[in-house]
Design brief:
It is a multi-pass membrane protein. This protein is mainly alpha-helical. The chain has helices at residues 2-7, 12-40, 47-68, 72-95, 117-135, 143-161, 166-182, 187-211, 216-228, 237-249, 273-306, 310-334, 353-387; strands at residues 97-99, 102-108, 113-116. Strand 1 and strand 2 form a beta hairpin.
Length: 388
């Protein structure tokens, strides 16, 4: 045990955040799934609790082993991951498991396990973009040599994710654009890319209306219309129930396990788990969860500033940015500041593949942090030797 603790390196604050969010996940998932488990599994209300516990333990193991790997290896893995992601996303669109008219999952035939291929694609894309940004710094202002090799992979991955999951595609694209901005990509190129995305999205909606084959565009359109509608009757049911949960929570909440909205709110254990946290732990508890994600971002910015190599700096910051933006968007949807999406709360919402790939991302961030700590330690030792 002592040897394990000795070998555990990296930012201690980030490790603390991981354990805190894992504890929040267990409490919130157990509370939000108790009624569901009782109905489905004949009174076994702890079924989803033990399932989430096993996933979180696996996630902690992934974080530990990923943070022990030298982060430079992820640069070599980035290209392979990116190339694998493309056929996986294409296969998902064509043959993936369908839910609410969206093909987002692949079911593994032997073990009967489903996972979202977009999770693999997000992780691979951030490693690839970080690699390209670090390699193209000398020509980053050149459109053909610097910008295109970075932005084309982003466009390909986002375009393949968008038909089934627009919110994830937009989140991924925005996070990559922010990383490019930090990586000194000229803002005129980024603004041109934003304009191109807006035109393509509008064109997609226009084609869907003209052809009559609306697909997911009809769902997106209804969500946006209901968000801006001033009629109470047009507010989505899940938003109404989330508002009731938040209003009932008050400042300190109803207490663990005392949620009533969980019996009425669709997907209280995933898409609307923050509303359950607000109901049971109040504004104070929800603020602690929000602060944990913001603290993760601040610590990653610290790693970014101290990392001596560009790839590690971009990798740590890029992965943390996408996790925090996803968390903020999830919270904004739960408090009705954004239209309804299917985004989960990283490391808190119930899930398998999402927790696993979030854990891998955090493990990579800690790998960069471990390298920074070792570099600082070597520098201190060298200074002491010179002084002696």
């Amino acid at each position: 045990m002592n040897n394990l603790l000795y070998r555990t390196k990296g930012d201690k604050v980030i490790w603390t955040i991981v354990f805190f969010l894992s504890a929040v996940s267990l409490l919130a998932v157990y509370s939000s799934t108790g009624s569901l488990a009782y109905r489905v599994y004949s009174g076994h209300t702890e079924y989803y609790l033990f399932k989430q516990l096993s996933v979180l333990i696996l996630g902690l193991m992934i974080i530990y082993f990923a943070h022990r790997v030298n982060y430079t290896i992820y640069s070599r893995v980035a290209q392979i991951g990116f190339l694998i992601s493309i056929p996986l996303l294409v296969y998902t669109l064509a043959f993936g498991s369908n839910l609410n008219d969206a093909s987002r999952w692949i079911r593994l035939p032997v073990i009967n396990l489903t996972f979202q291929t977009s999770d693999i694609a997000k992780l691979a894309l951030f490693m690839y973009v970080s690699r390209q940004l670090s390699r193209k710094q000398q020509v980053i202002t050149d459109f053909r040599k610097g910008f295109l090799p970075i932005i084309l992979p982003v466009g390909i991955i986002c375009a393949l994710i968008m038909p089934a999951n627009m919110s994830t595609a937009l989140l991924l694209g925005a996070s990559c654009m922010l990383l490019c901005f930090i990586g000194r990509v000229p803002i005129k190129y980024l603004m041109a890319m934003v304009g191109a995305v807006v035109v393509l999205v509008l064109l997609m909606f226009l084609i869907a209306k003209v052809s009559g084959n609306k697909g997911r565009t009809e769902t997106w359109e209804k969500r946006v219309e209901s968000f801006f509608s001033k009629e109470d009757s047009e507010v989505p049911y899940q938003v109404q129930q989330a508002n009731i949960a938040i209003a009932g929570g008050g400042t300190l909440g109803k207490g663990p396990g005392n949620s009533t909205a969980r019996n009425f709110l669709p997907h209280p254990y995933s898409d609307f788990i923050y509303a359950i946290i607000l109901e049971e732990y109040g504004i104070f508890g929800a603020f602690l969860v929000l602060s944990a994600y913001l603290l993760l971002l601040l610590r990653s910015i610290r790693i970014f500033k101290k990392c001596p190599f560009a790839f590690g700096a971009f990798l740590a910051l890029g992965l943390s940015v996408t996790l925090v933006i996803q968390a903020l968007m999830h919270m904004a949807v739960n408090v009705h500041l954004l239209p309804v999406t299917g985004l989960t709360l990283p490391l808190v919402s119930m899930g398998g593949s999402s927790v696993i790939f979030t854990s891998l991302a955090i493990g990579i961030i800690l790998s960069v942090s471990r390298h920074v700590e070792e570099s600082e330690g070597q520098q201190v030792a060298a200074n002491v030797a010179v002084a002696a």
